[in-house]
Predict the 3D structure of the following.
Amino acid sequence: MIRRPALRRAAWMLGWPARTLLLGLISAYRVSLSGVMGGGCRFHPSCSEYAREAIRNVGALRGGAFSLWRVVRCSPLSAGGVDRPPLPVYDTSIRRERPSADTHTVGARA
């Protein structure tokens, strides 16, 4: 039986060409046009840095959608501010250990 996490991992592995292509395009933009177009982004991190991190963290499809929404919001009518990219999908450092039953003694007296 194929488990859902296995399908997600397989989809993540199959998506590397799209992620690599998008990250390459973002790198080319940052090297060539970013300095010419101003660099006065209203948000922190900049839109290209946000796009790079979003695509790395959540994949080409979701990261691209987040990035597109970020560029749409970056207008003179927006206040801007700090806007962090989404957290990674497969970040093993976020895993929490399940507490054992003996560590939680609710209402117990010593």
Q: What stands out?
A: The longest strand covers residues 43-44.
